[in-house]
Amino acid sequence: MSQPARHTPIRSTVKGVREAIPLLGGYIPVSLSFGLVATQAGFSTWEAAAISALVYAGASQFLFVGMVAAGSPLWLVVAMTLLINVRHVVYGPNLASWLPPSRHWPWLMHGLTDQVFALALTRLPQLSAPERFSWFMGASLLAWGVWIVGTVVGATAGETLTARWPLLGEVMPFALPALFLTMVAPRFTDKRWALAMGCTILSALLFTLYGWSNVAIPLAAACGALCFYIVKFQAGGRTL
Amino acid sequence: MSTELWIAVIACAIGTLLMRVVPFLWMQRRLNSDTGINNMPQWLGILGPLMIAAVLGVSIMPVNPSAIAWIATAIGLSVTLAVWSRLRSLGWPVAAGVAVFGLVQIAAHI
User: Fold this and answer.
1) In chain B, what are the domain boundaries?
2) B77 inside 8 A of chain A by CB
3) What is the pTM of this model?
4) Any CB–CB contact under 8 A between B80 and chain A?
5) Are residues A216 and A139 in the same domain?
6) CA distance, residue B16 to nearest chain A CA (Å)
7) How many CB pairs (< 8 A) connect A and B?
8) Mean pLDDT, to the nearest integer, of A120-139?
9) What range does the domain containing A228 cover?
């Protein structure tokens, strides 16, 4: 039985930190890679760290650094970076009903990445209302901090690390699909959701395989939503 | 970095932050209005879980795609699912999946 009196902000923050640890399997190798790529593109360690701290959006950071290194016009670099991040606009509204009003959201929402969103949307409904703010703070700040530290380490020692433990960079990222699988699995008890989810996963994988990873998430989710609504239309309109 | 490049970084940072925070605050204000929680559009509630499924689809792609990597991915995901179906938690299924995925990769490299 849950006892609201036992929820302290520190305990909830620690819970958020603990539950965000599986995300680091994906964050560490990618942030190391970003630090390495940024320095190879001519950015200093602290410039790479500043990009990670301020922009904090994996795919778009790689695009930013790559386009700058290629000499693209800066207005185009900014436009493309923001275009890739447009998917974030649907994350906040999905969490809005689960999080209490607070004056801290304008800076705390900086931590709302793909992975933090997925974890939060799964865990927040299972937590009691007093726990949610601190939980989100713990989970998002851990992910953000590790992302910045990983960038600095990647920029300073990335080549040495990848040369010494080449398999580490391949094994650790598997924590992400494993984690997301445990998040979507409960939906597979409903046929309509199972079909929409299966369609989304498959199309996201196909988009990624064909090099469309930057737009795979919104496009695949749109495919899944289409599937969700079409199945409803066919079931209501006629019996298949 | 030049001043122009710093401005570009700041523009990207502010733009990304606004995309994260403005829709969140807008929806919170809408939910806390007199008309109540039913104001959340249905399509948004559907899109949320599908976004997680899409992130899963993107992350399934191995870092270095090869036959071994795909086999390890399939085995790792199966083990994750099997452990999850028994425990219904987040931590242990992930740990078991990563361990088995790693073992398959290491065994293939020996």
Assistant:
1) 1-40, 48-110
2) yes
3) 0.77
4) yes
5) no
6) 6
7) 273
8) 93
9) 190-240
8 Å CB contact of B12 and A184: no
Q: Which residues of A touch B63 (CB under 8 A)?
A: 29, 169-170, 173
Q: DSSP readout, A98-159?
A: TS---TTHHHHGGG--HHHHHHHHHHGGGS-HHHHHHHHHHHHHHHHHHHHHHHHHHHHHHH
List, for residues A43-95, the tens digit of each pLDDT value.
999 999 999 999 999 878 988 988 888 888 899 889 988 988 888 888 999 99
Number of domains in chain A: 2
Do A166 and A199 share a domain, yes or no? no
pLDDT at A101 over 80: yes
Nearest Cβ partner of A97 from B40, B55, B80?
B40
Q: Residue B100: pLDDT above 90?
A: yes
> Domain ends where: A119, A146, A172?
A172
Residues A165 and A194 in one domain: no
Does residue A177 surpass a pLDDT of 80?
yes
Say whether both A17 and A117 belong to one domain. Answer: yes
Give the CA radius of gyration of chain A: 20
Report chain A's mean pLDDT, rounded to a whole number.
87
Of A23, A24, A181, A213, which to mutate for an interface test with B (greatest number of B Cβ within 10 Å)?
A: A181
How many angstroms separate the first and last alpha carbons of chain B? 45
C-beta atoms of A91 and B51 within 8 A: yes
Q: How far apart are the CA of A5 and the nearest CA of chain B, in angstroms?
A: 24
Interface probe with A: pick from B20, B28, B84, most Cβ of A within 10 Å: B20
Q: Are A9 and A123 found together in one domain?
A: yes
